[in-house]
Amino acid sequence: MLEDTVSNVVTVEHDGDIAWVTINNPPVNATSTEVRAGLLEAVSKVSSAKYAVIECSGRTFVAGGDMSEFDAPPALPHLPDVYQAIEDSGVPFLALMHGNALGGGFELAMASAWRVAAPGTKFGLPEVNVGLIPGAGGTQRLPRLVGMKAAVEIACQGKMISAELLAELGGLDKVVDGDLRLAARDFLSNAPTRPTVISKRTVEPVPKGFFAEKATELAKRAKGQLSPLHNLTALEWSLEPFDQGQPKERAMHLELRHSAESKALRHVFFAQRSIAKPNAIEGATPNEVSRIAIVGGGLMGAGIATACLGGGYQVTIIEQTPEAASLAQERVSLLVEGSVKCGKITPKKRDAQIAMFDSVSDYAQASDCDLAIEAVFEDLSVKRSVFQSLAEHMRPDAILATNTSYLDPTQIFDGIENQERCVGLHFFSPAHIMKLLEIVRTPHTSPEVLATGFAIGKKLRKISVLSGICDGFIGNRMLAAYRREADYLLADGALPYEIDAAMRTFGMPMGPYELQDLTGLQIAWANRKRQADTRSNDERYISVADHLCEAGRLGQKSGKGWYRYEEGNRKPIRDQEVENLILDYSKTKKIERRSFTADGISSRLMAVLANEGARIIEEGIAENAKAVDMVKINGYGFPKWRGGPMQYASEIGWSVSLGTMHTVAEESPNSWVIAANQTNA
Fold it and tell me: 3-class DSSP state for residue 670?
């Protein structure tokens, strides 16, 4: 076998009739400039062979492009030209795949004459998830390969499909077990006839109105994100000759690289990876954790237990009585069964998880647990009592974690020995579904315990964010500021439905008042009462929500909150009683009500969020703007395609956001603190 080094990341080996072209660009063999140049040179290097096989070293085939290059002008050679050279090569290429073939990797496979893959290999065009369309023929070749219906699901929804399904769709020549090189040799030894290149094939006709129907479906699902519709437009170009559609695809791809949406989604992509390794855990080794105790088997505790079971942990719920323990057992079993019904786990996996779970009423059952998570009522004395009991029964190095949403963990853990083991693990409800996990560091928490929190979060497939201590930590503190400004807008002239509609238009799944009705008004009410003694008398305080709570209007569960609800229907209905209460409040406070545009409402609320985020960073509660953005996206439904409140403020200009914040502050004197360094957030 003769090796011909093309570049540091691409090699060509000649072995008889076959030239083996290998990409080695870890970790995911992205199509960097060096890879592209190497592949183009490899096309000429294989000219003496009968066949060329393109493969990748490491754990995966090409799993996408190098997004670190996307902010710079495209560098030669361009990916479409490289793939066209492979497709047009006098020596036919076979794509030999394992792991993932995504984005540019899938496009490379489609430019090849044949496609062979290991079982379980995943294929997709995920560019839509970063606000883009494929740029190397993906939307033009895919409909020609698998049909338009499947192409829409893959390109417009970012759906990944297995090798087995792709083979059923006609997109793979063979799915093979065992040694891939031997499989490729075997395939080529039968001298297969070179098929018509994909770019020369025609797309099967689609029904009349197909694209209009899909556009409506995608727009409804996308909730303001434009890239699914851009991908649909590009797919429609595949009905044209390839040499007409492909240049259009490339031009749109390059244009979208500079769009606010793509910048935001790429920000999210890199931010999620960055926040998983905060400076505070650098060099720290996580503790071994295999068994977890959870105190409290209500909705939150049961959700945490279900999440931990899904992460492979043995779990024990501790309740106050055998009856309560039995109910907790029931809740967890129902949640695990729900995972089966929605196809997340198999019945076999369900049985394995249930076998790893028990529910008891005796703290002694936690004696051999590595970690205990408290999930009881948000009351300081109750939580202290829980940890005193845990400390009595667990070994001194076992990790103790509180799930508090607002309370100061240092007060909760007061009196506990070895406070280096104490940490906040703030799950979001429902805990087995919501992605966000705030890991709250106390002044005493060891780096190893923090690292353990992040390791657990990873096993639970959470987005973990490090937080310092303040009222509400990162997420709920920002939520409080958001709601406060919404209440100011309410008192000054807007009505709940107007504020909610404005935020849905912005891209939020719900407005602030719809959300309050969904989650219940009583929690925020309890927090406001808790804060009353420390709240400045100079701060503007809107008491409308308090009046609703006092009247028993606690949200959907009570049939009425900011809106009213018909039995069995969660659709909010405007309620004149509530609107009259708001109007009367403004009149009593001698506020001259005025109208607000939807843009005016959303710009104010976004400025408040950005300002509060900047303050949180200044105070050292959050490590950086990426952490703030990930909290809002993964815990509160902030539209990912906006990038988070900090990225959004950066996109529109921090000076614009700050100007709006100054207006907000001037209209409600003594109610806001302007961050000192917004532009550096």
Answer: coil
